[in-house]
Amino acid sequence: MKNFSSLASTYDDWYKTPLGSLCDRLEKDAVFSLADVKEGELVLDISCGTGNYSLELKRRGARVIGLDISSEMLSIAKRKAEREGLKIDFIRADAAMPPFKNNSFDLITSILILEFADKPDKMIEEWKNLFKPGGRIVIGFLNRYSLWALKRKLKAVFKESIWRKAKFYSEHEMQNLLAKAGLRSIESREVIYFPPVENRLFLKALILIERFGKSFLSGLGAFIAVKGEKSL
C-alpha cells in the first residue's frame, strides 16, 4: 500500500476550497446515506488519513477506530479530534492487515484507498472477516469513467503524482469485488457529475449540473460509494 505521509501537511487544504468543500459534502452524503450509522456502533475507518470521515462518524454517535499507515496523517487526525473533544482511537497499521479480531465491528468505511491496492479482492476479503454477521462495509472510490479520473491520469503522465499507478474502478467492477467476497444487499450512490473546475464563480453552475447529472448522466459521476452486508 502507498504511504501518503509526504502529503499530510497539505492534505486538508483541498477541503478549505469552495470546490473541495462542495465535493466533500456530496461525497459524505453518498457515504452516510449507505452507512446508516447508529448510536454506539463500533466503526473501523480504514485508511482514515487526517480523520475526515473518522470525525464525522464520531459526530454521528459511533465509537470509532481510525487506521492508517502514515504516522504524519494520524498525528493531524489526533489533533483535530482533540480540538473538537472527540474521543477516537487512531492506530497505525497496514490497511491490508488490520490488527483486529474477526467479527469485531458493526461497520467499516474505506474511502479512496482501493485505487492503490495491489490485491483489492484479498483486501476486501480480509476486511469482511472483521465485521460482524449483519454488519456492513461502505467503500468510496473514484469512477474510472469520470472526467475527474481522466484528469488525474493525464496529469500523472506529465507530472509526478500519487495517481500515476492508481487503478480506477467502475461501479460494476466494485460491486463485483464485493459480491466475489460473499457480501450481499449491495447498493451504490453516485455523485459529482460536474467537471473539475476550480473557480468559485462557477459554483452555482456546478450545483445545477449536479442536479442535471443525477437524472441524465448516470455512470459518469466522479465519486461512487458502494455498500455490502455480511450474511447473518
Explain what you see.
By secondary structure, this protein is α/β, with parallel strands linked by helices. 38% of the residues lie in helices and 21% in strands. The model has no long low-confidence stretch (mean pLDDT 94). Strands 3-2-1-4-5-7-6 form a seven-stranded mixed beta sheet, sandwiched between helices. The protein is built from seven helices and seven strands, in the order H-E-H-E-H-E-E-H-E-H-H-E-H-E. It is globular.
What kind of oligomer do you see? single chain
Helix content: 25-40%
Poorly predicted regions are none
Structural class: alpha/beta
- Biggest β-sheet description: 7 strands, mixed
User: What is the radius of gyration?
Assistant: 17 Å
Instruction: Identify the overall geometry.
Output: globular
Give me the number of helical elements: 7
What distance lies between the first and last C-alpha atoms, to the nearest angstrom? 31 Å
Count of distinct strands: 7
β-strand amount: 15-25%
SSE map:
Elements: H1 18-35, E1 42-46, H2 52-59, E2 63-68, H3 71-84, E3 89-92, E4 105-111, H4 120-130, E5 131-142, H5 147-158, H6 171-180, E6 184-191, H7 203-216, E7 223-229
Parallel strand pairs: 1-2, 1-4, 2-3, 4-5
Antiparallel strand pairs: 5-7, 6-7
In summary, what is this structure?
The chain is α/β, with parallel strands linked by helices and about 230 residues long.
